[in-house]
Specification:
The protein has helices spanning 12-33, 42-52, 59-71, 75-96, 113-116, 119-137, 146-160, 165-174, 182-204, 210-237, 240-243, 249-252, 258-262, 264-281, 290-301, and strands spanning 106-107, 110-111. It is mostly helical. Helix 3 (59-71) packs antiparallel against helix 4 (75-96), helix 3 (59-71) runs antiparallel to helix 15 (290-301) and helix 7 runs antiparallel to helix 9. Bound molecules: geranylgeranyl diphosphate. The site of geranylgeranyl diphosphate (GRG) has 18 residues, from helix 4, helix 8, helix 9 and helix 10.
């Protein structure tokens, strides 16, 4: 899972075991949350399961669980939040791949939802996954504290909507063929990719103190952007079979990226700068923030 240009000092086996445990936990929770493919409407339920299960690194769920461990958020609340964030993410990928958006045939190493099923189904899959995310997070008795539950719903709604991910996607679509400045690119990605990553951390940190939540927010803002810079680097450096999605897509679509604006070497330096800021933000936590630090390393080192 190494990309060759970022080397971390992570204690690898313990972290790898933690990641595998949490990846299988979120898979299990999602499996039980999604309706059975035998339940009518069967095609929609089958396509929802196809799009949300059995793929993806689950970075957002991992960030949510790590922040929950750090801030001692109840594990049942962390499960609901991690599922909700992964469902929103899965919906965004399904819609992003549709012909009216990025028009991509490959996602997570298999045909994208509209290719495997059809466009109308893919549209409904995205809609229904988004609703399911809010259904899980708003479940009665999910949290003893109703105001905390309302706050969590607010975080996810804001991160997903027009001043979050959907807004970032709108700016992205409008940017094709335009020469953006680095600041414009950054603010687009803060919304498109960063908002949901930040929500994942903040939902996990829901039971934290004010100081902890402020530190978690700064960590997430920086690592969310670093995630996107690494994504742009991988778009250039990795191949399609490793990525599980079409490599070189952004460059070929005439989309501004960190690599087109900064060049490959400066983009790598910028990712390292954002990573360093994320790690500094964790300093109030001391050694207890080791999982978030390891996840930051994981994001930087990833090869897909
Ligand atoms: C359609 C409202 C709407 C939004 C789409 C997130 C997004 C906005 C589009 C995805 C396009 C893309 C490739 C963005 C770059 C960063 C990103 C989100 C990559 C995919 O996330 P990973 O690498 O995917 O975490 P996995 O498959 O591992 O879950």
């Amino acid at each position: 899972m190494k990309n060759g240009w970022f080397v971390a000092d992570t204690s690898e086996q313990d972290f790898a075991d933690w990641v595998l445990t949490k990846q299988s936990r979120i898979e299990h929770k999602l499996n039980h949350t999604l309706a059975s493919a035998d339940l009518a409407p069967e095609k929609l339920h089958s396509a929802m399961r196809y799009s949300a299960l059995g793929g993806g690194k689950r970075v957002r769920a991992l960030l949510c669980y790590a922040a929950a461990e750090l801030c001692e958020t109840d594990i049942a609340i962390a499960d609901a939040a991690a599922c909700a964030v992964e469902l929103i993410h899965a919906y965004s990928l399904v819609h992003d791949d549709m012909p009216c958006m990025d028009d991509d045939d490959l996602r997570r190493g298999k045909p994208s939802c509209h290719k495997q099923y059809d466009e109308a189904t893919a549209l409904l899959v995205g809609d229904a996954l988004q609703s399911l995310a809010f259904e899980i997070l708003s479940k009665p008795q999910q949290v003893d504290n109703a105001s905390q539950q309302m706050h969590m719903l607010h975080i996810l709604a804001q991160a997903s909507g027009s001043i979050g991910m959907a807004g970032g996607q709108a700016i992205d679509l409008a940017s094709v063929g335009k020469a953006l400045t680095q600041a414009e690119l950054e603010s687009m990605h803060q919304l498109k990719t960063g908002a949901l990553i930040q929500a994942a951390v903040l939902l996990g940190a829901a039971s934290g103190s004010k100081l902890q939540i402020t530190a978690a927010r700064t960590f997430a803002a920086n690592i969310g952007l670093a995630f996107q810079v690494v994504d742009d680097i991988l778009d250039v450096e990795a191949d399609t079979s490793t990525l599980g999605k079409t490599a070189g897509k952004d460059a070929n679509s005439n989309k501004p990226t960190y690599v087109t604006i900064l060049g490959l070497d400066v983009a790598k330096q910028h990712a390292q700068h954002l990573y360093a800021n994320a790690i500094i933000a964790l300093s109030p936590f001391g050694a207890s923030a080791h999982r978030l630090k390891e996840l930051a390393d994981f994001i930087m080192q990833r090869s897909f």
